């Protein structure tokens, strides 16, 4: 079951992130606090906080005295480079932490996989993209990679701005199920292979 946001700031942040991933905002466009606050029916404070948070995640770029701009998706060469780095980070974390998985942390990975399945069943591209990254982050944290999550999120946000793996929703789920199954078997080799096959 999806996790409900607990604060107005979280709700606003989630909504703007959804809009960014879905392509509602044009790359390179400037976002305005007043306009978004009016559309979302909130004060400027939560929008300002959301801008800071989403800039830290890599979706937005902050410019002094100008505001925040929607970042451009990577070109093909940049995407190949970003994909390579992301693969290295995730495989490094798994290789070094898979044997330390606890039942509690593994249950969080399983819950993230279930949310991804629900998104694939619904077939909404934006939801699939976000649940995809949520699943991978749950593995990062379960394997002790918390210190790398910040840098890793920056890479993922760039990839999400040009996320295009929606031609076959069930294939998307099956790829992640293979990662999960390999992880549950504590097989480093199989998990790394499944991760590399999925991160493209």
From TrEMBL:
Q: Does the keyword Transcription apply?
A: yes
Keyword vocabulary terms for this entry = DNA-binding, Transcription, Transcription regulation
Instruction: Indicate the segments forming the HTH gntR-type domain, all copies.
Output: 6-73
- Establish whether keyword Disulfide bond is in the entry: no
Q: Which GO terms describe its molecular function?
A: DNA binding; DNA-binding transcription factor activity
Report which superkingdom the organism of origin falls in: Bacteria
Q: Which InterPro entries match?
A: GntR_C, TF_FadR/GntR_C, Tscrpt_reg_HTH_GntR, WH-like_DNA-bd_sf, WH_DNA-bd_sf
SUPFAM superfamilies registered for this protein in UniProt:
GntR ligand-binding domain-like (SSF48008), Winged helix' DNA-binding domain (SSF46785)
The name under which this protein is listed is Putative HTH-type transcriptional regulator YdfH
Give the species.
Rubripirellula obstinata
């Amino acid at each position: 079951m999806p996790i409900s946001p607990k604060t107005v700031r979280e709700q606003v942040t989630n909504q703007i992130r959804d809009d960014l991933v879905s392509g509602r905002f044009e790359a390179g466009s400037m976002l305005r606090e007043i306009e978004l606050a009016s559309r979302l029916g909130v004060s400027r404070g939560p929008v300002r906080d959301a801008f800071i948070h989403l800039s830290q995640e890599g979706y937005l770029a902050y410019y002094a005295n100008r505001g925040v701009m929607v970042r451009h998706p990577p070109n093909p060469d940049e995407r190949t480079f970003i994909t390579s780095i992301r693969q290295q980070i995730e495989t490094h974390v798994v290789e070094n932490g898979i044997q330390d998985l606890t039942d509690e942390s593994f249950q969080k990975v399983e819950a993230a996989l279930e949310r991804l399945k629900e998104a694939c069943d619904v077939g909404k591209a934006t939801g699939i993209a976000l649940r995809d990254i949520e699943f991978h982050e749950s593995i990062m944290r379960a394997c002790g990679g918390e210190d790398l999550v910040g840098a890793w999120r920056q890479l993922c946000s760039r990839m999400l701005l040009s996320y295009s793996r929606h031609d076959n929703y069930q294939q998307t789920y099956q790829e992640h199920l293979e990662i999960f199954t390999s992880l549950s078997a504590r097989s480093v080799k199989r998990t790394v292979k499944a991760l590399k096959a999925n991160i493209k």
